[in-house]
């Protein structure tokens, strides 16, 4: 029996990968640099959203096992990742 939380995290990652593959196919289909850049830029939004959703689901799943201090460290780490990804 697969854990529901693990299943949700896996499905989100499969969705993310499918979006990436679809974006690559669109780039090849359009065969234009400008459109490929727009598609690639759109992926910059999808990645962090999937990261946040997957991490949130995982943290909810282990919230009863985490101390408040460890939860704060995980939150700080995810915040650092997002700042690094989204900061221009």
Distance between the termini: 43 Å
User: How many structural domains?
Assistant: 1
Structural class: mainly alpha
* Biggest sheet details: none
Number of strands: 0
Question: What does this 3D model show about the protein?
Answer:
This protein has 88 residues and is mostly helical. It has one domain (4-86). The protein has helices at residues 4-30, 33-62, 68-86. α2 (33-62) packs antiparallel against α3. The chain crosses the membrane at residues 6-30, 42-62, 68-86.
Write a short abstract of this structure.
The chain crosses the membrane at residues 6-30, 42-62, 68-86. By secondary structure, this protein is mainly α. Helices cover 86% and strands 0% of the residues.
Give the helix/strand layout.
Blueprint: H1 4-30, H2 33-62, H3 68-86
Helix pairs in contact: 1-2, 2-3
Structure keywords:
88 residues; mainly alpha; flat
């Amino acid at each position: 029996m697969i854990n529901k939380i693990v299943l949700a995290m896996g499905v989100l990652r499969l969705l993310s990968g499918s979006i990436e593959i679809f974006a690559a196919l669109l780039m090849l289909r359009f065969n234009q640099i400008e459109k490929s850049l727009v598609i690639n830029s759109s992926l910059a939004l999808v990645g962090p959203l999937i990261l946040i959703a997957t991490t949130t689901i995982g943290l909810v799943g282990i919230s009863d096992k985490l101390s408040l201090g460890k939860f704060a460290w995980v939150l700080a780490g995810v915040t650092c990742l997002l700042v690094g990804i989204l900061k221009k």
